[in-house]
Fold this sequence. Notes:
Shape: globular
Strand order of the largest sheet: 2-1-3-4-5
Structural class: alpha/beta
Distance between the termini: 78 Å
Order of helices and strands: HEHHEHEHHEHEH
Largest sheet: 5 strands, parallel
Helix content: 55-70%
Amino acid sequence: MMLRKRLTGLFVLALLFAACGNKQNKENQDNQSDTVRQTSKVNDQKLKNILFFGTSLTAGYGLDPTEAYPALIQNRIDSLKMPYKVINGGLSGETSAAGKSRISWLLKQPIDVFVLELGANDGLRGLPVAQTTKNLQSIIDSVRLKYPEVKMVMAGMQVPPNMGAQYAEDFKNIFPSLARKNDMALVPFLLDKVGGVPKLNQEDGIHPTAEGDKILAENVWAVLKDVLVAK
Length: 231
């Protein structure tokens, strides 16, 4: 009789342990399912990269990095909860030739949207329009070869008329021409409403102040926002 009771007790304990084990397994499975769902959600929200590739205008010369127009665009993106991360690839003094040499290094990271702001230093130095055009096309080709699905934006530039009327006109036409040829969205003139306005430029008369960069950000955002929505 005692043996039967003892066996019965052991059997009941075994059932209890089995029940607890099944419950724990179910909880583990539920936790794993939750983890998979959460991971999937994170993957869905994986940030896409926007590379701003340009000169001191993009780098934010003379400004705090948070005041440069790419940083201001990142603030706008964050406020709208859009899944994009801005990469500021601006470099003071950059010419189109130097940019052609530098672009491959920046393309080591995934790029989903490419904003090209180069040529201003070429224009200020009076470099041949044909050569600037060739260099910019080479940069565009390199980006598209590495990332065929990339969306592209061209930031248009102009030079002062004292560079010569014909040169100024030819230089201005570089950007819309390349934008049409390469199916790029076009910011007609990056420095619109800022260029030539003393109070919006630093003492050198070339680089925008923090207030000026706010306008640059608006000029770019007016075009970029549609590219991001389409992307």
